Amino acid sequence: MSDIDMLDASSILARLDPTTRPAFASIEVVDAIDSTNSELLRRRTPDSGLVALFADTQHGGRGRQGRPWASPPGANLYFSVSRRFSGELARLGGLSLVVGIATAEALRAIGAARVAVKWPNDLVVDDDGVLHKLGGILIEGGLQDGVARAVIGIGLNVRMPAEAATAIDQPWTDLQAQIAGGAPGRDSVAAALLASLAKVLAQFDADGLAPFLHRFDALDALREAQVDALVGDRTVTGIAVGVADDGALRLQTDDGLRSLHAGEVRVRRRGRAQA
Ligand code: BTN
């Protein structure tokens, strides 16, 4: 790896398997933008194929719950993928889990063997019972021309610059720390993520969430952990016992089994449950 790790669309495309390339209507890299999610939301998503937009830096990067997503240049990955989906808009409910699975599996395959998914879709690494954030996913969208479309934004720490790291207010990690020998170039990481997303999103469009539930089990960072979930202004405490068929987080509480849906809760892991 040279010191300069430029992102380049033709290099990303060249790293994709020839059978995967036709899945993409376009792959684009820009130097700077407000937010790749905002840009793809402004654009019309084509009738078929995936659109992928990467930015070297974002000056208005957005995280979930209205939080900003710091996007220093030359180091990490910030990108969005948009796609149309068949059927009702409600079918997209399970999408956040599926995108977490696609990204975590791709990162494990390139050597980040300890990457897990913290429900609903944070990419994390567990270090001595503390979850360190490696990346985040922001899914937006709705109906376009009466058809469901999603804009899937992913921010991934590849090589977090030291000066940017000082501003992060939670435990974090990057691919550089997670892969023996260091992170590959960003083009390689980008291609691995796009290939996995193309495959998984096509399967989700055809078959829904069911085929992915067992794959989530293998990546579930909260499994058997005691968690506090913030539901509105109430905290629900329980043991995380996997996800329901609709992707809801199942919590075993003192009052019985509760199912928590994405968007309603924030989950904070407190430590391993006792056997
Ligand atoms: C989160 O964990 O809060 C989600 C973070 C999502 C960040 C990505 S970076 C690319 C895309 N553009 C944005 O403005 N946000 C997403």
Number of strands: 12
Query: Sheet bearing the most strands, described?
Result: 7 strands, mixed
Question: How does CATH name the architecture of the largest domain?
Answer: 2-Layer Sandwich
Query: Which CATH C-level class of the largest domain is it?
Result: Alpha Beta
Q: Uncertain spans, ≥5 residues at pLDDT below 50?
A: none
Structural class comes to alpha+beta
Q: Could you say which overall geometry the principal axes of the C-alpha atoms support?
A: globular
Helix-strand pattern: HEHEEHEEEEHHHHEEEEE
Heterogens: biotin
Total of helices? 7
Query: What is the first-to-last residue Cα distance?
Result: 44 Å
Percentage of residues assigned to helices: 10-25%
CATH third-level topology of the largest domain: BirA Bifunctional Protein, domain 2
Average pLDDT reading: 92
State the strand order across the main sheet: 1-2-3-7-6-5-4
Content of β-strand: 35-45%
Features:
alpha+beta, BirA Bifunctional Protein, domain 2, 275 residues, single chain, five-stranded antiparallel beta sheet, seven-stranded mixed beta sheet, SH3 type barrels, binds biotin, 2 domains, 23% helix, globular
